[in-house]
Amino acid sequence: MTDLPELSGPSLEPASGGAAERLVILLHGVGADGNDLIGLAPHFARALPNTAFISPNAPYPCDMAPMGYQWFSIQTQDPAVRLPEIRKTFEILNAFIDAQLAARDLSDDRLALVGFSQGTMMSLFTAPRRPNPCAGIVAYSGRMEGGAELAAEIKSRPPVVMVHGDQDELLPVSSMTDAAERLQDNDIEVETHVHAGLGHGIDEAGLQIGLRFLHKVLAGD
Known about the structure:
Elements: E1 11-12, E2 22-27, H1 35-38, H2 41-45, E3 51-54, E4 60-61, E5 69-70, H3 79-104, E6 111-116, H4 118-126, E7 136-140, H5 147-153, E8 160-165, H6 173-185, E9 190-195, H7 204-219
Parallel strand pairs: 2-3, 2-6, 6-7, 7-8, 8-9
Antiparallel strand pairs: 1-3, 4-5
């Protein structure tokens, strides 16, 4: 079997200066790279001083831009083409998560995923298909991929918070509500937030929602 590509990207060690007791993995959107989300880490670290953060570059060069990376191609909307690509990337991301946890001697319950756009899609696809539940998922401006297959493939049920702008020009807010319904149908706890006037991005209010959620699921408050 061909060796899986190894992901890498910018990281931030715990603000406390000690060993990591928790881990947050940030997954960027299509056409970006790990630097796009690592800037959130200092914000979240204020409430999670014993947490390490890493924001890996997606495994493939973006096929619609001269720079940046993608988790899968968005040139086709055909699930018969897209889903196999996502499954291949799932294997890569799953191995990366295992390696990052092992390197810090942490279990899944000390892990949270934060995704934006395509990174949200990969977070929502990957986490419920891992044998052990992570602490939670923060899902910004994304949607569900492989939702029809989830009931047959689900292995764990981490809680999810979703934030989406009602003026998102790339993914309509219905993408969030549809994903939330699919997750709830599979007994996953979901909290949703629609932000008026927000396009395809993360606003200050969304950052605060993510921070509170991460503190709750990782610090137990």
